[in-house]
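ok new one. same drill as before - structure tokens go in, u give me an amino acid for every spot. 400 of them this time. try not to just spam alanines like last time pls lmao
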């Protein structure tokens, strides 16, 4: 590439010279103002109103296995999950709820299908909220008055979680299938039953496995009520497909300001759902970005193994929570430009890497030293960001 790089003469200021880091301007502006929704409280987490969009997941353990469930909740909490849902299909599960609700560090929502009695058990157990699926709960409509009374007395919100796979039979007959209109009618009908009893601590989901149907359903719902909305593409599939479907659907809605809390559903460990959810919010500037790796796709001009380099840098900086943008670029075509825009970067070529910090080349190192140099500089920047009061957490930087 004839870049004239030299390990002997670093361009720009010497490594000893201070480089102005400044405070990163994150998050930037989101694509649209948030839809105005009612605010409610799920335990310690506010949902709706001007509360930040929260990330939820659901445990995959048998809820009655208290130890395993709490262990998974702890893992989810560590990954950034803010609200967790647990299934409650049996009396043993209901009996486990008081301990789980008490010991969990994040609010616990009990997920109730089929048996209304577990709604009351969950409220009594101290769960932060209860999710009901009206299409699945026997004679649910007849029990709304009692549920509203119990929930209201305990200050517990209810999620009306309509799901395409378990739509109320009456609406299935009326619409022929789970159309957006059918999902919305089901949800608003159930809301109206609660409203008759003066209960409005409600959030709604209208999930479908087809992102197009799902987006249309939430758009209609958003136009017809002010309840906070829980976004979800149900049964979205294995990790790759589910991530794409969720990102596309959530991206469409959140970019219009629709959505107050999200759950990515993946046929994968729930921690993966949280990672995807957080990344979606960060990408839309709905949450402060943390570590961001800007790496090029590589092409015929690359003179280093960009994939390997990007993987090694990503692994080496895992756990870093300061909002640091690191550019890993394969050559000098776009490399220096991207590296300059980032907090830290490398433009590689000819067996060497130019290391940039805040737009300045601080040194040029041999290819074999690129990863360790980037990690070392990232640590330095993180320390200086923390000294300057940039959030948050202590970077747990490991070299893989
Ligand atoms: S930075 Fe260079 S190697 Fe990477 S994609 Fe662009 S031109 Fe190709």
């Amino acid at each position: 590439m004839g870049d004239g790089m030299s390990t002997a003469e670093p361009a720009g200021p010497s490594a000893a010279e201070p480089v102005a880091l400044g405070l990163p301007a994150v998050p930037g502006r989101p694509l649209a103002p948030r839809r105005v929704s009612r605010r409610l409280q799920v335990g310690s987490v506010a949902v709706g109103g001007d509360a930040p969009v929260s990330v939820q997941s659901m445990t995959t353990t048998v809820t009655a296995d208290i130890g395993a469930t709490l262990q998974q909740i702890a893992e989810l909490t560590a990954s950034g999950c803010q609200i967790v849902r647990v299934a409650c299909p049996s009396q043993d599960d209901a009996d486990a709820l008081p301990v789980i609700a008490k010991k969990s560090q994040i609010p616990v929502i009990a997920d109730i299908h089929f048996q209304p009695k577990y709604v009351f058990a969950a409220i009594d157990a101290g769960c932060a909220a209860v999710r009901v699926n009206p299409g699945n709960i026997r004679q649910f409509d007849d029990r709304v008055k009692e549920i509203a009374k119990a929930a209201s007395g305990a200050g517990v919100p209810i999620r009306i979680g309509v799901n395409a796979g378990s739509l109320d039979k009456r609406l299935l007959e009326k619409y022929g299938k789970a159309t957006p209109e059918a999902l919305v009618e089901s949800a608003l009908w159930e809301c109206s039953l609660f409203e008759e009893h003066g209960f409005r601590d409600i959030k709604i989901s209208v999930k479908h496995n087809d992102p197009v149907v799902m987006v249309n359903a939430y758009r209609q719902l958003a136009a017809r009520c002010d309840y906070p909305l829980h976004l979800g593409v149900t049964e979205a599939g294995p990790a790759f497909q589910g991530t794409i479907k969720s990102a596309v659907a959530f991206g469409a809605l959140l970019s219009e300001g629709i959505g107050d809390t999200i759950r990515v559903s993946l046929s994968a460990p729930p921690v993966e759902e949280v990672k995807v959810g957080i990344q979606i919010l960060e990408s839309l500037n709905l949450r402060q970005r943390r570590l961001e790796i800007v790496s090029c796709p590589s092409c015929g001009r690359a003179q280093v193994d960009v994939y390997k380099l990007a993987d090694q840098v990503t692994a080496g900086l895992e756990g870093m929570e300061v909002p640091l943008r690191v550019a890993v670029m394969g050559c000098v075509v776009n490399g220096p430009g991207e590296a300059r825009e980032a907090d830290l970067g490398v433009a590689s070529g000819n067996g060497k890497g130019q290391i940039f910090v805040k737009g300045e080349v601080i040194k040029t190192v041999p290819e074999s030293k690129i990863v360790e140099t980037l990690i070392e500089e990232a640590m330095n920047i993180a320390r200086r960001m923390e000294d300057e009061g940039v959030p948050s957490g202590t970077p747990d930087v490991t070299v893989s």
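Residues 296 and 329 are 5 Å apart (CA to CA). and btw The longest helix spans residues 370-387.
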